[in-house]
Amino acid sequence: MSEPQPEIQEPVGAEPSAAPEPAATEPESAAAPEAVAAGPQPAAEAEPASKATEAAPPPPVVPPAVVETDAQIRARSAGMTRRSLVVGVIGAAAGYAGYRWIDQSEKDGRQELPLRKAFHVDADVARGVFRERGLAPTYSVDKAVDLRFNGPYGVRDDIDVSSWRLQMAGVADAEKHPQYQKDITAWNYVMTPRVDPNAPKTVDSKGPAEAPKEAIWTRSKDGFGAPMRGQEEAGESDSTLDDGTPGISLTMADLMKLPRHELVTEFKCIEGWSEIVHWSGVRLVDLLELYPPAKVDGREPRYVYMETPYGDYYCGYDLSACRHPQSLLVTEMSGRPLTQLHGAPLRLHMPIKYGYKQIKRIGLIAYTDKKPDDYWTKLGYDWYAGL
Ligand SMILES: Nc1nc2c(c(=O)[nH]1)N[C@H]1C(S)=C(S)[C@@H](COP(=O)(O)O)O[C@H]1N2
Ligand SMILES: [Mo]
């Protein structure tokens, strides 16, 4: 990684540095020293040896990606050419116009930095005005590497991707959509216990270290045989939907109707490592525009909550962060379908946030006006996780 660290790394206010150092404060290290996958820190065995055997999500039924990356937009507005990246069209001209001012304000290397310093007394203002509207730096695709594996929560077993749905709650006029469901919590995701002696050790923390013939982890059932939720250290999410919550239930084909985008950005884990990654998928903002939030007390809800199927891992976000033009719902990394361990069939990349907000295997996106629960916040980390 020869690229210089981007300027936006500089924290505004105290919050990023206020996030506890994983090694020092990780409760799991004290409570369960044998557990390898303690926190958002790098796993000992970084690369899954099982890539080839993992089930891939259904091939995207989409026209070939005709997209323009933010890098390209920016390069063009700066009068440069970037031939290494895909050329194409952007989904919405309106969106493009809306972001142009960002690109222009950025082309000389984030001119707003001095302003950010002036605002440091008010972290909320700074966050809203600068951090979440500024673009993270982008790179040419030849700088990208295959992202290491780092977090097992919610991806310990293999999901049958044909059973995957993206549930959405809090959507305006949900019942008017053909994908409306009276109870989106009743959906049954089909999980297969992973049987893979080569899987990274981090997925072994709830099973025997060497178990070639047996499942390395099995989801518990409750007394009625239903899969139990929130089975990891942080426990069940406070933001879990009530049974009987209506919403919409999207298939991958529904998602693939959105314009494809590619992005080459730096992924940063709070532990201190970072890697430049080539992501492909659809913009979260495009999904949110297609299925906008229902008003709460006459206005937009402030937050978005996401969780894995059965809620083992979960994250909360400001709606504004989700509308950031680089917040991407990822289906492919390095030009290949996501592997199970990297969050197949759908994960989030949000380059304005640390890795622990970049949830893998998203099963639910819910609008809410109540600050959502968050896996690592429960364990002492900063809720915003901003860069
Ligand atoms: N479902 C899920 N998403 C997750 C995690 C996890 O454990 N489970 N870990 C987070 C953290 S701390 C990091 S650094 C990245 C790691 O993603 P990777 O394994 O694809 O590198 O995923 C984030 N999203
Ligand atoms: Mo992380």
From TrEMBL:
Residues 248-376 form the Oxidoreductase molybdopterin-binding domain. Pfam families: Oxidored_molyb. It comes from the Bacteria. Residues 10-55 have a biased composition (Low complexity). Residues 1-64, 221-245 are annotated as: Disordered. This is Sulfite oxidase. It comes from Granulicella sibirica.
